[in-house]
Specification:
Radius of gyration: 21 Å
Number of strands: 11
Distance between the termini: 20 Å
Strand content: 25-35%
Strand order of the largest sheet: 5-9-1-10-11
Structural class: alpha+beta
Order of helices and strands: EEHEEHEEHEEEHEHEH
Largest sheet: 5 strands, antiparallel
Length: about 280
Amino acid sequence: MSAHTTQTELKLIGKLILEGEMLCESGLHVGAGKGSLEIGGADNPVVKDAQGRPYVPGSSLRGRIRSLLEQATGLAVPSELVYISKRKGQEVRIHQSDRPDDEICILFGRSPGRMDKASGGAEEGAVHATPARLSVFDAPLIAGSITPQMRENLDDELTEVKSENAIDRITSQANPRTLERVPAGARFRIRMVLDLLCAEDAVLPALLVQGLALLQDDALGGGGSRGNGRVSFDNLKLTWRGRDYYASGADEREIASGADVAGLRGKVAEVSDSLVAA
C-alpha cells in the first residue's frame, strides 16, 4: 500500500531513465488506421513512421502496461472503471480513482473532471488532476535487427503478411483476412522516464518492473490470443539523474547495464531504499 496522502508534497527528487531493447519473440501487429485498401496489400497494416518504418507508439506500450497492472491489482472491475470514451462500438474504460494512495493513478496520472462509471452513474465529485510519473516514448525499429536472411522471406522490405481465416460455424465458409506484422526477431529501442517527486514514490520503480514482467508473459498489439505480440526486454540500462543533475550539472549514476527484467528487480529496490532513507 502506498504511503501517499492528500498532504504529500511534490517536488522533483530525480528521474530514473530506463533504456534498452524490446525483442519480438513472435510477429508483432500494432495496427494503423487505413482509409483505403491497396491492391495486394494487407487488410490490417502496422503503424509506420514518415520513413515507412514500423515503430511501436509509446501510447500502445504504456497503455498495455497499465492495463496489465490494473488486472494484476484487481482494479479492472466495473466498480473501479470509468469511461474515457462512450462512442458506440468503441467504448474505452480505464481505472481511475481519487484515492491518494492509488499507485496506478500515481504512476500514470489522473485526468480532471467528472467521468461516468462503468458500473453506472457519475463519479462522486470531480477527480483532481495529478501528474503522470511515467513517460513512455515511441519505440523505433532497430533496422539492423531485420537481417538479410529475414528479408528474403518477407512480403515487404521490413514486414510480413500473415494470412488467417475466420470460419462460419454453420456453413463452414472461410472468410480470409490478412494481417501485416513485424517479424519475429525484430528489435525496437525503448526509452521510459520515471519521475520521482516525493519519498513516497519509492514504490513506483518496482511497479514499473512488475508491468514489464507481466507484459513478457502476455502480448502486445493485436491478435495476442492468436500468437501475435509476444515480446521480451533485454540490454536494459537504468540511470539515475538527481535534481542536482539538472540544477548544477552533477553526474548521473548508472544503476544497471545490460540487464533483463529479472535483473532490474534488485536494482530498483536499491533506489527505493535510498529514497526512503533520504
